[in-house]
Design brief:
Elements lengths: L2 E6 L5 E6 L4 H5 L6 H7 L4 H18 L8 E2 L5 E2 L6 E7 L2 E7 L5 E5 L8 H4 L2 H8 L4 H18 L10 E3 L8 E8 L2 E12 L2 E11 L5
Antiparallel strand pairs: 1-2, 2-6, 3-4, 5-6, 7-11, 8-9, 9-10, 10-11
Length: 217
């Protein structure tokens, strides 16, 4: 199936969402895999392998390159495209794969919207954020919080993050389609503009811009 959603932002960031109904052979016939990639997928179970293949196909499509680029992982497990200016992020949920390429630190998350997220909301929302969400209490709003926290974690990219203490999402109106997210660690501080959009039965959340790179005095 073609890309469900594709957009290039004013700052050059490229975003895409794919609804995967194809089998692995479709992607394998279209991809040129590098030795490191072949080794990586040999360790994956069937579902993870299918997600991996779809995400690499989507990244290649978004990159605009004629030649295939290797998708590798750094020692923190964060994916990257060597010898390019792009920073990337990937996400999977159900049949959907999302990818973003950007020249600044970035992140993306897609989640099929299910009520079960309410059972784990206290694992990623601080008391202040929980109080903010309870003013609406709707499922879409909560998935924006969850997705924003997930890709702030990806933007930081070094692991060892407390989702309730190190990552913060400012109050926002769901209808606005955007909000402010902050990563505040001892070795890192950045504020991001976060956009969200419903794609069929899923919530797409992504960093559209990096606003501040140093902690205000």
């Amino acid at each position: 199936m073609p890309i469900l959603y594709a957009n290039t932002l004013s700052n050059g960031t490229r975003i895409g969402v794919w609804h995967a109904i194809e089998g692995d052979d479709f992607f394998l016939d279209s991809l040129t895999l590098f030795p490191q990639e072949i080794e990586e997928i040999s360790l994956l179970n069937a579902r993870k392998k299918s997600e991996w293949l779809c995400s690499r196909y989507l990244l290649h499509d978004l990159s605009g390159h004629n030649d295939m680029l290797a998708t590798l992982k750094n020692h923190y497990g964060k994916p990257y495209l060597p010898d390019t200016q792009w920073q990337i992020s990937l996400s999977h949920s159900g049949p959907y794969t999302a990818a973003v390429l950007s020249e600044h630190e970035t992140g993306i998350d897609i989640q099929v919207m299910l009520p079960k997220i309410e059972r784990i909301k206290t694992k990623f929302l601080s008391a202040r954020e929980l109080a903010q969400w309870e003013t609406s209490g709707d499922l879409q709003h909560l998935h924006v919080y969850g997705g924003a926290k997930e890709y702030l974690f990806k933007a930081y990219g070094k692991g060892h993050v407390d989702f309730k203490k190190d990552l913060f999402v400012a109050p926002f109106e769901y209808a606005s389609g955007t909000c402010l997210g902050t990563v505040d660690k001892t070795d890192y501080y950045s504020e991001f503009q976060i956009d969200h959009q419903e794609i069929r039965d899923a919530m797409l959340v992504f960093i559209s811009d990096q606003l501040v790179k140093t902690k205000p005095l």
